[in-house]
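Following up on my earlier thread - several people asked me to post the actual chain instead of describing it. Fair enough. Here it is, all 84 residues.
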Amino acid sequence: MTADAGPPRAAGDGGAALRPTGHAGVDAVLDRAGELKRLPVAEHPGRYGELHAALVAELDAEPGTVPAGLVPRPRTGQEEAGPR
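Reply from S.P.:
Thanks for posting it. Predicted structure:
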């Protein structure tokens, strides 16, 4: 999440507030999750699958298009060497 992503937005009746991530594609998918409350419970598993696939697609996008806080830094091998 970026520091300037904005104020929380309501997640629905009794739901936790969601903070914008600063990544328009991810925020759009999270906004679609709010539609669940209008669907019959029997349709939730299918919708969760769709939302998960959409999030994976957004986060698998070219690294330059995803804010740095949402993508792990590449490992250089130096992390495991420890202090000298």
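DSSP finds two helices and no strands in the chain. That should answer part of your original question.
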